[in-house]
TrEMBL record:
Gene behind this protein: arlS
Protein name: histidine kinase
Organism this protein belongs to: Megamonas hypermegale
Entries under SMART domains matching the protein: HAMP, HATPase_c, HisKA
Keywords: ATP-binding, Cell membrane, Kinase, Membrane, Nucleotide-binding, Phosphoprotein, Transferase, Transmembrane, Transmembrane helix, Two-component regulatory system
CDD domains referenced in this protein's UniProt entry, alphabetically: HAMP, HATPase, HisKA
InterPro entries per UniProt: HAMP_dom, HATPase_C_sf, HATPase_dom, His_kinase_dom, HisK_dim/P_dom, HisK_dim/P_sf, HssS/ArlS-like, Sig_transdc_His_kin-like_C
Recorded catalytic activity of this chain's protein: ATP + protein L-histidine = ADP + protein N-phospho-L-histidine
Membrane topology: Multi-pass membrane protein
Length: 488
């Protein structure tokens, strides 16, 4: 039976609570808690009043019985009766004296319920007590009994004494009908008060939860109204100084990040399309030219094939850079870091640059050694990007210098040139994707893709490398890299 009840609660009540709106859940929990508080408070009040009233009756009959019993052991029977008639009993207590044959010798209240009825009812109640009577008697002292006459209730106790070789029984009775009726009426009143209190708690809980959650409902409606096309909208932040205000601020921050991400994505797609369109157009143009005149003119065919091959290589490089940045954005660009020596790396880079740009004076003035924990390919790629920019924006015959210095904490790598330099406004933008200076300012009038420095910046951030840029128009540029040393 218990297992079936648990299963029913799990399958029905638990599931209903799980899919219940938060406002109803809060109202439900609030009403349950308040109901429990009401039940406990009212029950404690009822038990307390019950104890006070019944305990007073219990004390009055017990004290009277003990007092008369004590006197009976000291005096004769007639003197006891005289003392009782002189108000030796506490008001409300009735006393009877019977002999060994159960004959009533004395009765302080003859009109009270007869002794035979009391004894018969007591015997019947002892043989087959009701649950309520059993509980009541279990809570009373052993020599005190609760007797139920349907609409009349009493406490009963007795004492046995011996006088003049005769055995007498002292019977003490105390009516508790008024107390019991009062407690029944009080219980009924408390029940109604409790039910009204529970009903009020449910209503108040529902209204309170709706009021507390109204800002959440407003936030939900506003979030539903926001589409991709209007990510510039923001949620109105309620001045509640609580979790709801924090939630609204969090939503606005999320919308700002989403807006920035979508704008970057749109700009990236637009710029990538534009960059890919140029080589694609060139390839299509030379392909048409090759189809028309290439068969009959070998010189034209060679020219077309060379141009198509060159543009295909440019497109391949552009796509590789785009894929690199895409993997970096998705945090899927894998780095294979290891401890590497900077001295041979700088020497190789300087030697390669001298071979690539013989028209420039490429020198390595200082090359101190030091170990760093980095991806060798990425480090080489980053340094080449900075050197390629120096070559591109430095006129023929210009100077390019690379150096490395170990300050005991970091490797300081500098790449300097005396090229055209970068303006202050442009310095803020050179690491943005697809940003390029005017192509006319390069030595051959051809700009790059505008992705190299973005890749270099990502590599630097992935290796905790600080980049410092110093540049002045017509005087040159210096890139300083602060690379953490590997002490492992």
């Amino acid at each position: 039976m218990l297992s079936k009840l648990k299963q029913y609660i799990k399958e029905h009540i638990h599931l209903r609570l799980r899919y219940m709106p938060i406002s109803l859940k809060l109202a439900f929990i609030y009403s349950i808690m308040l109901s429990m508080i009401l039940i406990i408070t009212l029950s404690a009040t009822l038990v307390g009043i019950h104890y006070v009233l019944y305990h007073e009756a219990e004390i009055s009959i017990t004290l009277s019985a003990n007092f008369v019993e004590k006197k009976a052991n000291e005096k004769g029977l007639e003197e006891i009766i005289k003392d009782v008639e002189k108000s030796s009993l506490i008001p409300g207590v009735v006393m009877r004296i019977t002999d060994k044959d159960n004959n009533v010798i004395y009765d302080s209240m003859p009109m009270y319920i007869s002794n035979d009825k009391v004894q018969n009812n007591l015997q019947l109640q002892t043989q087959s007590p009701s649950f309520g009577d059993y509980i009541r008697n279990a809570l009373l002292p052993e020599n005190l009994k609760f007797i139920n006459f349907r609409h009349f209730w009493i406490f009963y106790t007795q004492r046995t004494i011996e006088k003049d070789d005769n055995v007498y029984t002292l019977h003490f009775l105390r009516t508790i009908t008024a107390e019991k009726v009062f407690l029944e009426e009080l219980s009924e009143t408390i029940l109604y008060v409790g039910l009204v209190g529970v009903l009020i708690s449910i209503i108040c809980g529902f209204l309170l939860s709706r009021k507390l959650l109204k800002p959440l409902s407003d936030i939900t409606k506003k979030v539903k109204d926001i589409e991709i096309q209007d990510l510039n909208k923001r949620i109105e932040v309620p001045p509640t100084h609580d979790e709801i205000e924090e939630l609204a601020n969090t939503f606005n921050l999320m919308l700002e990040r989403l807006q920035k991400g979508f704008e970057q994505q749109r700009q990236f797609v637009s710029d990538a399309s534009h960059e890919l369109r140029t080589p694609a157009t060139v390839i299509c143009g030379y392909s048409d030219m090759l189809a028309r005149w290439g068969k009959d003119d070998p010189q034209t065919a060679d020219e077309c094939i060379t141009a198509i091959h060159s543009e295909a290589i440019n497109m391949q490089r552009l796509i590789e850079k785009l894929l690199f940045l895409a993997r970096a954005d998705q945090k899927r660009q894998v780095l294979h870091k290891e401890s590497i020596s900077m001295k041979p790396l700088i020497a190789d880079i300087a030697k390669d640059t001298q071979l690539i740009a013989p028209q420039h004076s490429v020198t390595c003035s200082l090359n101190e050694d030091g170990y760093i924990f980095a991806d060798p390919l990425c480090m080489r790629q980053m340094l080449r990007i900075f050197l390629d920019n120096s070559i591109k924006y430095t006129p023929d015959g210009g100077k390019i210098e690379i150096s490395s210095h170990n300050d005991g904490n970091k490797m300081i790598v500098k790449i300097s040139d005396n090229g055209i330099g970068i303006g202050k406004e442009e310095q803020k933008k050179i690491f943005e994707r697809f940003y390029r200076v005017d192509a006319a300012r390069t030595k051959n009038g051809v700009g790059g893709t505008g992705l190299g420095l973005s890749i270099a910046e990502w590599i630097a951030q992935a290796h905790d490398i600080e980049i410092k840029l110093d540049s002045e128009l017509e005087k040159g540029t210096t890139i300083t890299l602060f690379i953490p040393l590997d002490f492992g």
